[in-house]
Every structure is written in C-alpha cells, then in structure tokens.
Specification:
about 45 residues, mainly alpha, 1 helix, about 0% strand
Amino acid sequence: MGRGDKKTKRGKINRGSYGVRRPRIKKKVRPEIKIDVDKDTTVKR
C-alpha cells in the first residue's frame, strides 16, 4: 500500500487521477455585484 496503490490518496496523487479518496476541489462561485455610479442617487424632496 502506498504510491502504486489505486485506492489510496497517495496512489491517486502519483497517478494524477481523482476518486473517492481524492475528490476535486470545486471553486466557489461568487456573484458579481456591480454598483452603477451613473444613476442619480440623490433624494428628491
């Protein structure tokens, strides 16, 4: 058991594959919040 073993994390790293022992890290999706400066934000009285 070790680098050549398909079922271990070290073996997955060595082979460059993924699986249950070494899942892919998913990137977090962040929503882009855009602030529009062109709009008139003054309060009318």
